[in-house]
């Protein structure tokens, strides 16, 4: 007998001010539980259900789980304190019982499940108006494509799950091939790109790209916040991951050809600082983000993870920010020393060597840190997921892969110019240009949205780069400290001398954290969580390597 089920939406009375800082999103009552036999039959119910799915994305990327799974497992980031689950990710000694891997697996499939239901309801509910059905469908398929894209990059073969409207049916699906997953992702992302709309300009300000208008209560208007530029960039990234360079370049050219809508923001830090969210033209670069507010229920708890442990720099100056935090995530020594510390504006904004007491644990990271919040546990830092700088570097990678190395250089140089760096050397080989693009991506997207992990895996360089990190780390074995330029030096050139003499050359104790990252072939993908294996033995963790089981 068919059983009715109640689908639990992600948040009750949520603020989904999520996608665009160009216009505040709205506060909506989202039902805590709803009977799917009787719900998602009207335009208003459909858009509210969409909001629940967006809230599920927000829950996925906020806080400690996502950064732990996608950033600690790279050569960019360490975990500093005593938490076995995160320490094991940082040292690459995690297993299939890791709680953060479990949480992200579950969170991403929550997003998929919600969008599956919404897509099916849009296809089968005759009461939803045709125009609004297409609008909401484009948003839903974009979100589902994004979620599956994360899943396939983290785990490789993953199950394409059916829509669960009842407890009947196949609740233990097997894993699909990577090509099958990408076929679904491409289909969703293509539909989204074709049907999304661009942001518009009203009274000199960017506004949300689309709305759903209903006749409820005399007429209500609901914003649909994902724009066509985000759709183009996501589709381009999906093609790039499969080395479909022609298709990737074609998608990204949509952004290249609309300079009035898409461009780099002049100042890198304005992308991430909470007090810069109303910066003019910020929406030209920030195409998709999850918004937060520094109030309970709407906060991004990544703030407390990133905030420095004390508010004094090692030279005694005040740190940027209003509150201390846990100082849990820091860059690796290799990443810090890879930056052009003298000229790169990204380095100068991204890090600060606070604190005096914890000099040996490395610098604190500004991304995710709300510098204006005075509450350690409540931060309003947005989580940027897609931005235009990625489009430029994708264009460069596609041009290089297709044999026009000189053209690739001009797009990398645009990103470097914003960072205050000189153009790349002319005459690079195709191989050298690819390495330069990958390195530029490392600097540009450091500690941001899983980009480093995904870049290394899609280019087949993960093992190589992790071994390179290990070689650098091993070179520190008999070294007590590294001389590092103060990121916040204010004169034209760093002042001579160290932190004890008023200079800008800090002597930083190394290593920042004990232990090393020893890479293994199995780390090319994360393991399917043990709990899910027990519930569904069809998942089979040994598709890639038996070492995870």
Q: How is this structure best described in words?
A:
- This protein starts with 5 loop residues before the first strand and ends in a 14-residue tail after the last helix.
- Residues 1-21 and 23-33 have low confidence and may be disordered.
- The chain contains 18 helices and 16 strands.
- It has 549 residues and is of the alpha+beta class.
- It has a two-stranded antiparallel ribbon with strand order 1-4. Strands 2-3 form a two-stranded antiparallel sheet.
- A hairpin with a 2-residue loop joins strand 6 (200-202) and strand 7 (205-207).
- It has helices at residues 43-61, 64-70, 84-90, 99-124, 130-155, 178-195, 228-241, 245-256, 282-285, 302-306, 333-338, 345-350, 388-401, 405-418, 430-444, 451-458, 462-475, 530-535; strands spanning 6-8, 14-15, 27-28, 33-35, 77-79, 200-202, 205-207, 210-214, 220-224, 286-290, 329-331, 351-352, 364-365, 383-387, 481-485, 505-509.
- The protein has a domain at 302-381 and 477-509.
- Helix 1 packs parallel to helix 5 and helix 7 (228-241) packs parallel to helix 13.
